[in-house]
Design brief:
Elements (H helix, E strand, L loop, with lengths): L1 E6 L5 H12 L13 E7 L2 E8 L4 H9 L4 H14 L7 E8 L4 E9 L5 E2 H6 L6 H17 L2 E3 L7 E6 L2 E6 L5 E3 L4 H6 L8 H15 L3 H30 L1
Antiparallel strand pairs: 1-4, 2-3, 3-5, 4-5, 6-8, 7-10, 8-9
Length: 250
């Protein structure tokens, strides 16, 4: 199987060699979280790393990734660099690895520096008593607005994919799970739809709508109506898919 590997140009050759061996030994590394894709945290030369192993795609996508599309690992690596160029937080990208046969794409891995955070956005959806809750939710909304202003459409803008670190009296935000992004000017509806996967709670939608109105100058009532509609539409679609999968399994 052919190995394709791309490294951050800041890495020294001995580190690249050790990192390649880590990828070869991935299956025997301890720990791991995830179902479809597995993330393992390990240490190399004093640096904590996250290694994300993407599931081998179905046969159609094995052909697509071999000949027509960039792999999830490559997109994650390239989008991380793009975000950093745009001064958007994300764990430092170090490398990606791909394994292919002459006709089919098989495994791929994305490697980044492990980032210790205080919480993710997900905690805000479950603990409404979290310290400085309102300030943090509004700061997250400001962060999302800044993404939109920079022409970043994060398609997986969902509860687990934004890490939050306290920074004095403020907060720093870092995006993870980067393989589905679009970089383009965003219209109003697309911007508001980008909030649809974040929460099922109308109270949170109301706060985010209020803060987005302050950032954008758009009418609050217009924003909150559309944001809640997009949230409900996403939830309905999500649960329809779950019911369908359950029926198919039965």
């Amino acid at each position: 199987m052919k190995e394709n590997k791309v490294f951050n140009n800041r890495l020294e050759s001995h580190f690249k060699t050790k990192l390649t061996q880590l990828i070869h030994d991935f299956e025997v590394l301890e720990g791991g979280v995830g179902k479809r894709n597995i993330i393992k945290t390990t240490e190399l030369d004093g640096i904590n790393l996250n290694i994300k192993a993407f599931k081998v795609p179905n046969i159609v996508n094995q052909v697509a990734y071999q000949f027509f599309r960039k792999s999830k690992a490559q997109r994650s690596y390239e989008y991380a660099h793009k975000l950093l160029e745009l001064q958007v937080g994300t764990p430092q990208p170090l490398a990606y690895f791909e394994y292919k046969t002459p006709l089919l794409f098989k495994k791929s891995y994305y490697v980044s520096v492990h980032l210790d955070c205080d919480l993710t956005y997900r905690e805000l959806t479950t603990n409404f008593e979290y310290p400085d809750y309102d300030d943090m939710l509004r700061a997250f909304t400001q962060f999302t607005y800044s993404l939109h202003e920079k022409g970043i459409y994060f398609l997986d803008h969902s509860p687990g994919n934004t890490l939050i670190k306290r920074n004095g009296n403020g907060y720093n935000f870092y995006l993870v799970d980067l393989n589905r992004m679009v970089f383009k000017p965003l219209d109003f509806k697309t911007r508001i739809k980008n909030f649809s996967k974040l929460t099922i709670h109308k109270s949170m939608v109301e706060v985010m709508s209020d803060e987005y109105a302050k950032c954008s100058g758009e009418d609050y009532n217009k924003i909150v109506h559309l944001m809640w509609k997009e949230t409900e539409d996403f939830q309905n679609k999500f649960h329809r898919k779950k019911r369908l999968k359950k029926k198919l399994k039965l």
